[in-house]
Amino acid sequence: MNPVRYEKITAKQVLNPVKTPAMPFEHSINPYRGCQHGCSFCYARAMHAFLGLNGDDTFQTNILMKENAPEALREQLRKAARSRKGLAGIGRIAIGTATDPYQQAEGRAKLTRGCLEVLTEYPVPLTITTRSPLILRDLDLLRKLPVYAVNISLNTLNRTTWRNFEPGAPSPAKRLETVRALTDAGIPAGIFMAPMLPYITDGRDELEELIAAAAEHGAQFVMASYLRLSVSDVKVWFFETIRRHYPQLVGKYARLYASSPYAPREYRDPVRRYVDELLERYGLRDMDEEEEAPRPGERAAAGAAASGRSSGKPLEIPWQPPAGSPGNACGGCPAASAAVGAGAAASAGAVASAGAAADGGYTGAAGDSASRSGLAGGSRTARQGAGTPGAAQAVAAAAGTPAEAGTPLALEPGSPPAQLVFSF
């Protein structure tokens, strides 16, 4: 794994208009390009190609930092406030649509915090999407802002799956603790269950465990969205991950995504109906993200098959994960409890806050805390499955150590490159 390099760049603007009608916001803010979480399914890998960079390992080891992000944002909002429509013309702002605004670099660079400080001067409704407990550092600002949702991205409680696909992201346990801490602080928060991975994270038992854990940790909603493979850079990198860790699924994925960025409706619809049943059972709101809502003209031109809708043919590989599939068993690792004890739930916020203050939620490769034992306990016993394919070779080299507290962030092009918080 190459060391991470940080490069300062100057942005002309950081408040960018979002013209896709399906999106529930009108503008986005992304203080960084590239993301140290290194999620293999991240669609933002393609954005590196626009800069002449690769969407492979470079995406997580070459982080571009918009050093003037707060100042550029203030200038844009100042002009908007003086316009005919005023701040109302901005609509809603989404922070973290392309890369995680609370990735490791934010711990010292504080560009996201700087943008939030500006937004306290120009209050505009906003949402934040992140995988990181580092967001708890900014509770003082979040309480002052018209935040209508904090989306904590979490698509599995399976530790092997997490490490295979999100090698640099905090653990599922830490993310659940973050939801609890946010809601306890009065911040509306829930789970962005995305992307759901066919045959890997969408088994019936795994879906129920995740939604039950979300409810137990105070989530106010769950937003589910299936894997999208829209761009070749993303598709190639993702398939390499599948080949490495789940070789028996390569053919199935090739058929599912042969003619569309989306799996066919015949596969997705039964899962979505089951998710709806679970949300109703556990009393959670469904903040459904419409995965594919092109304009009427575009829809007609694209056709059903191209847009990922019904293929018009019997589905060759339906959604019925067998008992030993990676999506229907926890691969022999402890499953997160659907009923966490009251004591563990009460202490989760304190644990997450302490972790965020100390290290931004990144406590080594596991990114985990002692409260994991609380998640594994409860009414659901740990299930012994057939073992997640590829698990033996998946995490052998995943162990890392947290960065020293006094280690300076290497920001200047000529300075020694900073090591990634995780070694993987």
Question: Would you give an account of this structure?
Answer:
- The chain is α/β, with parallel strands linked by helices.
- 36% of the residues lie in helices and 12% in strands.
- The strands form two sheets. Strands 2-3-6-7-8-9-10-11 form an eight-stranded mixed sheet. It has a three-stranded mixed sheet with strand order 1-5-4.
- Strand 9, helix 9 and strand 10 form a beta-alpha-beta unit.
- It starts with a strand and ends in a 30-residue tail after the last helix.
- The C terminus is likely disordered.
By DSSP, the count of extended strands is 11
Major sheet characteristics: 8 strands, mixed
Q: What structural class do helix, strand and pairing data support? A: alpha/beta
The parts where pLDDT drops under 50 for at least 5 residues are 289-317, 321-424
Q: What's the tally of helices?
A: 16
* Beta fraction: 5-15%
Radius of gyration: 21 Å
- The strands making up the biggest β-sheet line up spatially as 2-3-6-7-8-9-10-11
Average pLDDT, rounded to a whole number, is 73
N-to-C SSE string, H for helix and E for strand = EEEEHHEHEHHEHEHHEHEHHHEHHHH
Form type: globular
List the helices and strands and how they pair.
Elements: E1 5-9, E2 15-17, E3 27-29, E4 32-33, H1 45-50, H2 58-61, E5 62-66, H3 69-82, E6 93-95, H4 106-109, H5 111-121, E7 126-130, H6 139-142, E8 147-153, H7 159-165, H8 172-184, E9 189-196, H9 204-216, E10 221-226, H10 232-245, H11 250-256, H12 265-281, E11 285-286, H13 296-306, H14 342-359, H15 372-376, H16 391-394
Parallel strand pairs: 1-5, 3-6, 6-7, 7-8, 8-9, 9-10, 10-11
Antiparallel strand pairs: 2-3, 4-5
Helix pairs in contact: 3-5, 8-14, 9-12
